[in-house]
Write a structure and sequence with these properties.
With 123 residues, this protein is mainly α. It is built from 5 helices and no strands.
Length: 123
């Protein structure tokens, strides 16, 4: 139960941090491009790479890995997990699955976003 609470707390911290980027970025960069999302996703990918590397080297334990990777970075961005999954598929030479994963992630994500928009119009 303690781990669930830690993940929830750090997930909240990650979410608030992401919101901070969405508020601050437009104050410094005027653009039609979703720069704050790109920045958050790149930072999250970088940080999850560090966390997983530290876990693989037994520098951090499972509780800290879950708290940081699932809680903090999961709340901050899910793109970091996408990057880790892609790396793992490519690293295992599962190129076909990596290709399917990237296509499915992008297009299914977009499809379900649009579906959500359409369904929410009924409420």
């Amino acid at each position: 139960m303690k781990l669930y609470l830690l993940i929830a707390i750090f997930g909240a911290i990650g979410s608030v941090t992401r919101y901070f980027f969405f508020i601050i970025t437009p104050k410094y960069f005027v653009s039609f491009f979703p720069l704050s999302t790109l920045i958050v996703n790149i930072i999250g990918s970088f940080l999850i790479g560090i966390v997983i590397s530290l876990f693989d080297k037994n520098i951090i334990n499972e509780t800290l890995r879950a708290t940081l990777a699932i809680g903090l970075l999961g709340g901050f961005t899910t793109f970091s997990t996408f990057s880790m999954d892609m790396f793992n598929l490519i690293n295992k030479s599962l190129y076909f699955y990596a290709f399917v994963y990237i296509i499915a992630s992008v297009f299914l994500g977009l499809f379900f976003y649009i579906l959500g928009l359409k369904i929410s119009s009924f409420f």
